[in-house]
Design a protein that fits this description.
The chain is an all-alpha fold. Helix content is about 70%, strand content about 0%. A two-stranded antiparallel sheet has the order 1-2. α3 crosses α11, α5 crosses α10 and α7 crosses α8. It is found in: Cell membrane. Pfam families: BPD_transp_2.
Length: about 350
């Protein structure tokens, strides 16, 4: 009679299986990703505080908010213009529930309580938006989410009891944990880098999970997926909820970076900026929003100086951003990543040995 494996042998086999899968996953990551990751970790050694805090920190934050839009549009086929409003609501809730300069309104809850509640409130708000938006398609979805964004902006500006009206909230700073001031350049850089990495990996994981695969199937053919037994409406609404968590994290970090939040944070220009960032970088892949955010932040930061050097009004930087957006969309609807793919394809046609796999 055969003797069954002992628990120790089963546990050893399980560990070997997990180690094999982990090794295969690590080997599947392109070398370029490891190089970029190493550069990001070592960036404080070569960049000054301004670049760490204002350029990279801001780019990571906007990239997370645009990533939530990319998830909805790229995997779900739903373009939402309410993501900046959802992010702003998360920031507002941190200011209202935590500490701020408006002591008559803020409740002073500890960070470990107000941050999760802020994310939860933003997720509920996005779920309500999704419950209405998913029943429409195309331009109607865009218009509904834009209407929510406009309504949120005017409501926060006119409401003084909860949102403190036009003035908003000031002195909203991150908690001082482990004796570290997280608004200092290097700690804030690593905080935003860590959150951006977690959000990026979460999107990658969900896109390959059964829910993400079903969502992509619904994007391509909702009628067939419904015939197969999938609840199309529930999947789409859940996608809005998941995207809201990412947007809310970005919104909280944005408030901590600026130490204040006002209705202008969720104004219509900011709403459109998130759409521009996602499209310029590439709305089909999760890395695209971060590329678009980095380009946007560079233009937003340095274009006024360039315009003033050319004896032009510095406030016309939006013109340069708009022209850059038109150029990228005209030459590549897939954004900067699409241009990169076209360049690689052209290079392979010229040199067949490029990217040729090595013999085992």
């Amino acid at each position: 009679m055969a003797v069954s494996d002992s628990p120790l042998q089963s546990e050893a086999e399980t560990r070997r299986t997990l180690a094999t899968r982990l090794n295969g996953w690590v080997q599947s990551i392109p070398i370029a990703y490891w190089v970029v990751g190493a550069i990001m970790l070592l960036m404080p050694l070569i960049a000054n505080d301004f670049f760490l805090y204002q350029i990279f920190g801001w780019a990571f934050i906007l990239g997370m908010i645009a990533l939530s839009l990319m998830f909805l549009a790229g995997y779900g086929g739903m373009v939402s213009l309410a993501q900046m409003s959802i992010a702003a609501l998360g920031g507002y809730m941190v200011a209202i529930l935590g500490d701020s300069g408006a002591t008559s309104i803020s409740l002073g809850w500890p960070w470990w309580l107000n941050v999760p509640v802020a994310i939860l409130v933003a997720a509920i708000f996005a779920t309500l938006i999704g419950a209405l938006a998913v029943r429409t398609e195309g331009i109607y979805t865009i218009m509904i989410t834009l209407a929510f964004a406009a309504a949120f902006f005017y409501f926060t500006r006119q409401n003084y009891t909860i949102f403190n009206g036009y003035s908003g909230f000031g002195d909203v700073v991150p908690p001082r944990l482990f004796g570290v001031n997280w608004r200092d350049a290097i700690p804030f850089y690593y905080l935003t880098l860590g959150c951006a990495t977690i959000c990026y990996l979460a999107v990658i994981y969900v896109s390959r999970a059964p829910f993400g695969l079903a969502l992509q199937g619904i994007r391509d053919n909702p009628r067939r997926m419904a015939a197969l037994g999938f609840n199309v409406v529930a999947h789409r609404i859940t996608a809005y909820t998941f995207a809201a968590v990412i947007a809310a994290i970005g919104g909280i970090l944005l408030v901590w970076q600026n130490a204040q939040i006002a209705p202008g944070t969720a104004g219509l220009p900011a709403v459109i900026d998130i759409l521009v960032i996602a499209i310029v970088g590439g709305i089909a892949r999760p890395i695209g929003p971060f590329i678009g955010a980095f380009i946007y932040v560079l233009l937003r930061t340095f274009s006024p100086d360039v315009l003033q050097a050319l004896s032009m009004a510095g406030d016309r930087y939006k013109l340069l951003i708009g022209l850059g957006f038109l150029v990228v969309v005209y030459w590549s609807p897939d954004g900067v990543l699409g241009l990169w793919d076209r360049w690689r394809a052209r290079r392979r046609r010229r040199d067949p040995l490029v990217d040729k796999p090595e013999a085992s």
